Amino acid sequence: MIRSFKTDLRWSDVTPRAAFLNRRQIIAAGMGALAAGALARPAAARIEAAASRYSTSEAPDSLETITGYNNFYEFGTDKGDPAAYAGGLTVDPWSVKVDGLVDRPGTYDLADLIKGQPLEERIYRFRCVEAWSMVIPWIGFELSGLLNRLGVQSGAKYVAFETLLRPEEMPGQRARFIDWPYREGLRLDEAMNPLTILATGLYGDPMPRQNGAPIRLVVPWKYGFKSIKSIVRISLVDKMPPTTWNMLQASEYGFYANVNPEVDHPRWSQASERRVGAGLFGGRQDTVKFNGYGDQVAGLYAGQDLAKDY
Ligand SMILES: Nc1nc2c(c(=O)[nH]1)N[C@H]1C(S)=C(S)[C@@H](COP(=O)(O)O)O[C@H]1N2
Ligand SMILES: [Mo]
Q1: Which of 3, 123, 205, 218 has the most neighbouring CB atoms within 10 Å?
Q2: What is the pTM of this model?
């Protein structure tokens, strides 16, 4: 088990979910069970994992907020569409294709792919390019651990990801303004940073479908669109891969998409953000460069002009 370095705030005390207060009694299934393939059994696997040293001590948004206000265009463009329409997504069985410049390519059953990766809780700030934000208690593991296991070859410079393409279960994919499947990518050093995780759950439970079940990326210093959901393909490549929002509107959405209050979106300011769960008394707060994770990631961009590499 991972020890908490932050004892001042226990987010289990602030969650409104009565059921969640019982989590310590139901952890028998535990992390091992989750890693071994209990991912798709909604009630079966609750995960014990204390806040890691990378977690914020800010209070997470409620489960209702995190699962009710989503961007997942495969299910529609309204914030309530994923919650309304993702219920029919089959997440078990689930396989992920690994290809490109990697020693162990193949199509892996999800449980095999993530076997042995140490799950932990990461309470991260999450900042959408649309200038809203949340705090989300993810369960996941460092992408670097998986990439090391897969064996990244020396020519690889980027990691590319793809979301499931299944219009029968993803009604938003019938709209053609996006060239499906949804695609994202990271530079290899970004992918290897310990903040970058693949998340398989949140609030101690397997990942809700609207949040990208059964496995999604979380890159907390970048705008939310980089954190691609429901991943079915991971490719190690030598060139910067095409990414969905950049393909749609390159002048508005760059490849890097680092949270940056100094670089406005062409149509709105990025200087501040609305904390979604703040409710009546909450308001806007200042946006922090790299979403507050600069100590860990600013060095990745030394020598880059972030106004140009936006
Ligand atoms: N496949 C896929 N991944 C996606 C998206 C999407 O539309 N499709 N939306 C992105 C955007 S814009 C955001 S802000 C986050 C939202 O994550 P959340 O709904 O879990 O908060 O998912 C990102 N990942
Ligand atoms: Mo977003």
Answers
A1: 218
A2: 0.87
